[in-house]
Every structure is written in structure tokens, then in C-alpha cells.
Predict the 3D structure of the following.
Amino acid sequence: MFAGRNTVRVEFLPPMPDHNATVRGLSRLATLGVGCIWALSAAYDASGGDIASPKSMPAIVVGVSNVQSGPSSDLGHELVLGSQSYFDLINSRDGGIHGRRISILLKDDKYEPDPAVKNTNEFIERDEVFFLFDYVGTPTLTRTLPLLRYYQSDNIVNVAPLTGADPQRLPPYSQFVFNVRASYREETRALVRYFYAKGHRNIGILAQADAYGKSGELGVNDALATFGLSALRTVTYRRNQPFEDDMSPQVKLLRDVGVDAVIAVGVYGPSAAFIRDSRMSGWNVPIANLSFVDAVAMLAKLGEASRKLGKDLTLNLINGQVVPSPDDLSYPLVAEYRAHTAAGDATFIGLEGWLNAVIVTEALRRAGPDPSRIGFIHAMESLHGWDPGIGTALEFSPTNNQGLHRVWLTRTANGRWIPEESQ
Amino acid sequence: MKRISGKLAILQLACALLAVVVLYWILDRQLSVQMRANFAAHADVIASALAKTVEPALISRDITSVQSALDAVLSVPGVQWAYITAPDGNVLAHTFVPQFPPELKMQLESAPEVIRISLAGEQASTLAVRKPVLTGIVGQVYIGFPLTTLEASIRSMEKVVLASIVIVMLIVTFIIALVTESIIRPIRHLTGAARQLSAETGVAFRPLSVRSRDEIGVLTETFNHMAAQVFEQHELLETRVRERTEALSLANAELEAEIAEREQAQKALQESGELVRLLLDGAPEAIYGIDVGGNTTFCNAACLRMLGYEAASELLGKNMHAIAHHTRIDGTPYPVEECSIYLALKTGNDAHIDGEMLWRKDGSGFSVEAWSRPIHRADAIIGSVVTFIDVTERKLAEQALRNAKAAAEEGNRAKSEFLANMSHEIRTPLNGVIGMTDLALGTELTPEQHEYLSTVKLSADSLLSVINDVLDFSKMEAGRSELDIGDFDLRGNLETTMRTLALAADRKGLELLCEVSPDLPKVVKGDPNRLRQILINLVGNAVKFTSDGEVLVTVEACGPPSVNSLLHFTVSDTGIGVPADKQKRIFDPFTQADNTTTRVYGGTGLGLAISKRLVELMGGRIWVESRAGGGSHFHFTVSLPPSECPIEPHALPLSEIPRDVRVLIVDDNRTNRRILLDHFKNWTMRAEAVESGELALSALSAAQRAGDPYRLILTDVHMPAMDGFDLIQEIGRRDELKPATIMMLSSGGQGGDSARCEELGVAAFILKPIRGAELQAAIARALADTPTSGGIPVHVGPALKDQADHTGGLRILIAEDNSVNQMLLTRFLEKRGHSVEVAANGRLALASVEEVSYDLLLMDVQMPEMDGMEATRVLRERESKTGTHLTVVGVTAHAMAGDRERCLQAGMDGYLSKPVRPAELDELLDRLMTTRRKRLLGENR
């Protein structure tokens, strides 16, 4: 397909009916990777004043560092695909914003803190991206926050990271981040309330052994405290543990103390493994996950495992979400997303990526032609009261860096996610 | 017979074993101790860093960021787990999977106030470090470091070190064995041949093949030649014996016939005469008689046979001396009056003659052993009976034996010579090791690599000096050491030698002083390098065995030069001394005063043996006066006759220093004052010395008033009360003092002294120890009107330590065997104004405590001879009688739980872990200072 001089068109493979989501995601990643290298050279060409192009306005380059390889890579793939789809739409339909195309410069941090810090530093120091965007994960993001403080005078901000943790929502780092999605506290509060209403009192926690897991664990315990309860036991697993690894020790530890509902603060691979080992050991308590888990990817793993093991592992699962279901076309945002996304590619995470792109695009529009970084920040703060098309208005303001607070609960039915009434 | 090759092999093995053990011990100890210490320090640093990192997050109760920090620390190599507890003990965040082990918390909590804990059970091989965050107000950080990797790397390091040492030693041993065998083989052949020859087997002699043209080749050839002659002689002899036997039997037959003829007529006479005759002729020895005139009265058959005569008539009545004893073995005439056989006639006593020649009828001679017995009749000597035997064969055998002995001795010398020659072969690769290590040290290295390579260099240097000693000694044994006699400047040589030793002395904080009697000749005849070697050995030993005090070298003449040219050197120290029963043996090779000192001080024990041989070569002797613990005085004399040649290449012409200049010396050290005064006397300057700044000021004013001011002031920097700088400033303030040229002596150490001198307009800044020539040059330059900037170029030299001022700081005794740690602690404490003494083990520390009262004893727990625990127990026992109490703080490298308990149990007041951190030590010192101040105040009231 055509790749423009100043921006990048990402080539999507036509949907293949026989392929499952993971494989498609990987193929697309390959294409996207090529696009990213292009984006980099394009950004340089633009800044060097390339005259061969009819439109010589430089692209607005945003820096995206997230997980593009390893056991959690679907998260990164889906998120970037969602955002890139919307930017593509804006770039091709409107010729960008105020004549400038929006281009993603993507780097892989493998869901590990050190590469994330290195990538972020390169974005700021070398690539001079306009802002940081679509980061994924608590351990990675929390480690990059001090960098933003370090480069405070450059007014570089991180917009819409895919994490609900607290550090970027609290001082001293809140001023450097615009959080679109609801926080883990809000998600865990919703889940705890849900379980409490269903009569569960013995809540167990599965937490990733890092800042993400800790953040979720704190959220669950805080929410339980409002009912005078606390988690019976918290078990952990190592980050980036593959789906194949055994999780029965964790299952046994929770089961032994009489847990009757589990809130998992994990990523789809290990969470799916935990669900698999619970169900295979005959333990069928409800298991809830946070939005970060990538519910669609998790269900795909479980579906596959169910076929292999001959047992339906997808029963009695709850999932918190910070965006509406991608199937709920009553929301204008979802409708537009689906109009530009193949049916098999629509995911919660993809929709979040799209939503993120819609919000920053609106801010760029408001910032006017040739925006400065500080101008962009002011534009973001001006989005207070603006509804991106999900029936809820953003709450950004000069004193509030949290855009949305809403949590949607979903549960499994017939191997799919369907909306569940929030309590 | 003990084989030379066997002895050599034993010597080789012993050397190789010694080298392997020494090298392995040094390397293994150094490296593993360092690795452990590094590990512990590493752990401590990580824990401290983590505690610092999480502090803000803990303060703001941002547990997610705390977890994030834990997450980050987990990626540090060597960290197994980490967790953080709230002040109430609850675990806030951790890195365990699948859950936090509750027993861990219990274990760590049950070890209060201890910084490092080793856990039992599952975590047995884990080093757990706890750090309070914000002094524990907001929480505690715990980090676990698995010790397995450390142990594994130490083990693999040990394997590599041992393997490489053993391989090198095997190669060297193999090469030595090959070379030895090639030298020994011909000697062995020679020995075998000589033995065969002397055994007279009669088997034809086969010449030995000559393989080489060296000494052994020549020896073999000579031996062949000699053996061939011996064999020839032997053959000849056999033939003659056969002939004589035939002749004898013929004669016998004739005699029998004659006897038969006369049988009837002479029956009675026959019976006695026959008996005598039979006795005589039956005797294997030759027997003849002479009268007082020396004429033959009878002779037996053996006599005729040996002398080569047919019938007795040829001899009877003739002068036997003239016939058979006329010439000496060397061919000169043998006058009858000197004849030893006739001597018996004159003296009347029996005479025994051995090794003289008798001459046969045919003119040939043979060696005999003879006995002459005078015959007395009625108180008069009427003649003598002479008995002799042919000892030619015996003499030949004796000669062969002598030759064999010489060959064996030659072989022994060859052994020693070989060893001496090996010197080069061993040193070459070792120099390669040292050289390449030096080069590697010059490249960019990680601190760890640098440390390891430095250790390799240190160890290689030690090995080199061991090998040098061994080879030097064997060279002397081989008689290969010769003196290289030449004219040299005695003082210059001594000063250069002291300079090389000064660094080592300085490092131990010792004073190294050298005093040369002024009446000694300037230029002497002798071997300067060998003299230096002796001094380096003795002074090096003195420094090694002295932990504080001074090492003094004095040189004086044994008598006026007209009487003898012996110079008497004395090396005195204030060290551990030599027990009386060991004093004789310490000059023997491979001996040290106490076997255990080998462990403490190292060394081959060859130094003194070498020195002894050198001193003897130089016509003197060496001895020691000492008592254990009371220092030693090593004396030696060497013959160094004054040289006729008056050259003195390094000295400045004396004319450059104005004569009769008045000089004031200000120095609180008596020995220094004496040395300086001697120097100035030699340079015909008028010098006076005072011991303090105050006295100097009054001396200056007095001189000013007397109208004879000092033109030159030489002041020490470090003096109690008023130091050198104060003095100079004071002089500058007093207008009445006419400004003199001021020179400053410094023991160095203090940075910025040189700069301050320049500021104060000091003409020259000289580092101690003072070299005569340097001082002379500096004075010449300073007194000349040429402006000098910043003084004379300074030299790094040893500090002649001044008595420290005790009023401000604490008196601290450090009991520590490791010299590096001694130095570190000493520097650290002295910087803070404390006065420090060092004892190398618990026993010495106890001895010091008996003599001096200290404020603090820093006690290393692990020391040779007597460790810190035992020393503390003994000290406390003693104190229980006297009612005193010395603060003892244990210092240990053990990162073990319960160390603190053991220290306290032993009676220590506190406990520091290695590496000692400045902050901890400071805190301890502050506490002690405060209590001391309080006590002093209490006493004053």
C-alpha cells in the first residue's frame, strides 16, 4: 500500500477467517514495525525541510513505548492499532490537524521498566516527540515518571497510559500525565462492590509481583475496608510469566484459606493460566480481572485451552472495563470505531486506543496551528465537559489530570464478554 | 650412596612446594577475602540505596511506588528477594512468588538491632540485609542476597588459581628434572667406572664415551686415560708375579736339592737355620737385615723377588741404601744420612716408612711401606731388620679413590652451579608475568579487575623475591658469589639504600634513621651492591618485625684506619626482638626466630643466611644482640679500606656554601637534631639546635642582640605547641629579627605544606629523610642570591614522625593483623586528630595495654596467635583485679548472626563490622569523646 512521505499508512492485512486473533495481531505487528521505522525517517525528513513532498508541514510525532513482544504483547498491539486507525482516518480524511499529520513513533519496551526508561529518554532527548502516548503497564510507566520530572522544563507529558495505578494520578507526578481511563481503585472498587452484593465475603487476590499488582492489591483492600473486610490472602506471580507455566500453587494457597471469589490483578497470559488451573482442579469460584488484563486476549487463550483440555474454562469470569463494549454500537464513539475496524479486530483495548487517539486529536485541534507543548497541555486541560462519544464527559482541568471515572463490568457468556449490571 | 639427583629432586620439590603453598595461600586468601568483602559491601550499598529510594514514597505512603522500587532492585544482579515492612512490622511490599513466606519475617524480626543476618533452614545460604528507612520511622527494608553464587565464584577462582600455579610448577619441575638428569648421568657413569676400577675385577676396562665438551667431558676423558694406565700396570704386574712364582719354584727345587746334599752334615744347624729360612722365605713381606754400616746381612726370597735379584749373594754385604734406596720418588738423590730406614739405627727406635720408593735391579721403582727394627746386643745397636711390602697397588687404588672423590665433589658443585644458572630461567617468565600485569594495570579496567591484577602483581613480586633469595643463596653455596670491588661513595650509597627502604618504613609509621660517623673515609674500596644487599636485608627485617618506634642504622670505624679497615654497622630496631635461644640459629638458612612468625611476617628465612655469607666474604662477621620484645641490634663488620682515589662525583663543591654561616636548627626530634648538627659540622657551618619554636625565637633575639644573627634557619614543620608555620609567621611579625633565609623540613603527608611554604616565602622545602647531598645543594642554592620559587624540588620520602599531640584526641590502640586495614584505620583516626598505635595481634595488644593507658581498643576478631575474643577475655580478667575498664570495640569481617552476642559475651563494649564505615566509627568516637570530656570535667570538680 501507499506510504506517504511525511506520515505513515499502516497496511492492514485483510481479515482471514481461519486465523485466530493472536496470529493476525502478530502479522499486523510486523507491518506496523516497518511503518515505525518509516515514521522515524519521515520525522527526520520533515524536520530537515523536505521539499519533494507537496505538503512540507512536519508531522506531529507522538512517542509510544509499550509492550510489543513477549507474553503480554497483545495489549500493546491492540492499543497501538486502535490509536493508529484513528490517526490514519484523520490523516487521510482531513490531511491531519491544521495541515499536520499525526504520526506514531513506536518502540518496544517488552513490558520491562529499563527499556521503558531508555525509550522514553530517547523520545525526549533524541526524537523530540511532541508528547508521550499509549504507554502500557504500571511497572513500566512508574519508572518513566521521574524522567518527566527531570525534563520538566521541556513540558513533555504522557497522555493516556494504559494503567490504572496511583503514582501518575498523585503528586508529584500527576502534573505530567493525562489519565484517560478510570483508575484501578475505581475498577477494584466496582469489582469489590459487585462481589459484596453477590454475597462474597472471602475475597482472595492474585497479584502480579510488581507495582501493577501492588496497585491493584491496595485498591482491592481499600475497597474491602469500606465494608470492614480485608483480603483473606494475596498470592503473587512473576511478571511476564508465560501462559504455559503452572499456577496451581497459587490456586491451592487461595483455596486452602476458603476464598470464595478471586480478584486477579494480572495480564491475560498468567491470568488465563490461573483460571485454567483453578478450573482444572475443580475450583469454580468467580474470578474477576481488571481491564488491563486484555479481556479479549485472555478469553482467546482460554477458548483455545478449553478446546485442548476438553473442558470449558470460560465460565464464571468477571472483567472490569474502562471503555464500553466494542459491540455496543449505541455509543457514537464505538460506532465510528467499528466502522473503521474489521469485526474480528474490535477489542476493548483497541477501542481504548481509538478513544485515546480521539481525545488527543481533539486537543491538537483546539491547540491551533503550529502548537507548542504548553499549548497542547492547555488544550488537554480545556477538554473539561467534552464527551468523546461514550455518554460521559471528560473531567480534565488545570487541576485534574483524570479524564474518566466510569467502569463497565462484563462477564462471560457462551465464550463471549457481555455487559453486566454494575452494582 | 645418596644420589645427587635425589638431593636435587628433593630441593626442587621443596622449592616448588614452598612456592605453590605460598602463592596459593596468598592468592586464595587475598582474593576470597576481597570477594567476600566486596559482596558484603555490595549488599550493603544496594540495601542503603533501596532504603534511600523508597524513603520519599514511604513518607507519602505511595506503596505502588515502593513496590516499583522493589521491582527495580530485583533486577540488580545478586538480589534474590526484597521486602519492606511498616514500622508496625507489617509487610508493605515484597517480591516473593507465590506469596510472602511468613517464617522469614519471624526469623528476621527475632534478630533485633542486627544489621546482617544469616538465616537458618531454607534461606541458609542467603545474606539478609536490613536497613531502616528514615531511621525506621517509616519502615524497614530487607534484601536477600544468595551466597551460593559468591561461594561458587570463590570456588571456581580457587580452582583456577591452584590449577595455574600447579601447572607452572609442574612445567618448571619437569624442565629442571630433564636438565639435572643430563648433568648427573655422566657423573654417575664416572662413579660406576671408578668403583669398578678400584674393585680390581681384572675385567678389561672399557673407556667411557665422552658426550660433551664441558667440565664433565674433560673429567671423563682424563678418567679414561688414567683408567687405561691403571689397567696396563695391572696386567704387567700379573705377568711379573707369574714369572716370579716360576722362578721361586725353581729356586725352591734347587734349594731342596742343596738341602738334600747337606742334609747329613748340617743336620743340627739345618734344623734351626731351615726354620729361620722357612720363616723368612715363607713370609710374604720382604725382609732383610743390615749392620750398622748399612750393609746387607741377610735377605729373604720375597725381598729378592721384589727387588728383582736372582740370588741373595747379589745383595749380601752390599749397602742396601745405595742399591735400592738411592733416589727419592721425585727423582732427586736420597742421601744416606737422611734415609729414614737408617734412622732406626741412629735412634734405636722402630721406624715406619710409607710411600717411599725402592728401586729394582732393572732400575724401575715401586712404592713401599717399610718397617725398620733395630737389633740390640749388649746395649749397642748392631744392626736392623727391615721389612717392606710393595704398596704400588694400594697407592693406585688410593689414587683412584681420590679421583672418584674429586669427581663426586665436582658433581656437587655442578648441582649448585646449575641452580644458580636456573635463576635466569625462572626469572624470565616471572618477569613476563610482572611486566604484563603492569601493562594490564595501565589499561582501562573495572575496579574489580584492577584489584585482582594488583593482587597478582603483589603475589608475583613476592614470588620473585622468594626465588631471588633461594637462587642467591644457592649461588653462594655453589661458591659462585664473588665481590665486585670498586671505589664508591660510602655515604651516598647508604643514603640511596635508606631511600629505598624509607617507603616501607613510612608505610608502617616507623622512623628510619641513619647515622654515619663523620670520621669515616668518604670513598672506600668494596662492593657497594653487596653492602646494600646486606643493609636491605637487615633493615627490611627490622621494619618488618617492628610495629612502632624506630629503626636506626649507625656506621662507625672499628679502629683507626692505620690499624684496620673494618667498619662496624649496627641496625637497631624497637621491634619484637629475637629470643636468646634462637639467636644462634637465625643466621642458618631457612630459619626464622619463631616458626610461627613465618606465618605472620612471611619470607623465606634466607635473608640473614645470605647476609652472613656476604659479610664473611667481605672479611667481617655478623652477630645479634637482642631480647624478645626488647628490640634487636644486628651488628656486622665489613672490611672497606679507604680508597686512594678521591673522586666524589655527586657532591657539590664545598666552596658554594659560605663557610662559618650561623645556622639555627629547630626540631623537636633529638635524633634529627643530631644528624643535622653533624651535617653542618662537616660543612664547616656554625650550627646550633633548639627543640621548639619558642626557644628558637629567644635564640634568634639573643643572636640579634649579640650582633651575630643567624643567616639560616632550618625548621621542622610538625612540632608540639608552635609548629614550623607558626614560627615563621612569628618571625615575620617581629621587626627586630633580621630576616634570615628559612628552610623547612617536612615529613610530608600533609597536602598543601609546599604551597604554604611558598606563601610564607620559605626558601626551600625539603622532605625527610634528609639526604646530605640534597640538603647541601638546597642550602647552597638558598644562600646564593638566586631567587627560588617554591623551594627545592621535593622528594617523596618517609615521614620522621613527630610525637603527636595527645591533648586533643583519643589514644587509640588498633589490634589488627592485616597491614592494609591497619593503615586504613590509622589514617582515618589520625585524620581526626587521634593518636593511634597498632598491635598485630591480641597478645601484643595486651602487652601494649599494660604499658600505656588507652581510651579505646579497636579489636579485630580474627588474628593469628591470639584472637580478639580471647584477648578481650584476658583483658577483662586482668581488669577485674585492677577495677579499670578499657573500652573495647570488636571489628569483624564475619557477617554472621550472633557475632555481636559473641563479642559482647567476650566482654567487648561494642561491635563494628567490616568494612568499617566512617559514619559508624565517627559515631562511636563521638560517644567516647563525650564520655571522656564528662569524666575529665568530673575529675576537675
About this structure: Confidence is low (pLDDT under 50) at residues 595-602, 648-655, 785-807 of chain B. The radius of gyration of chain B is 44 Å. The CA atoms of residues 718 and 817 of chain B lie 29 Å apart.
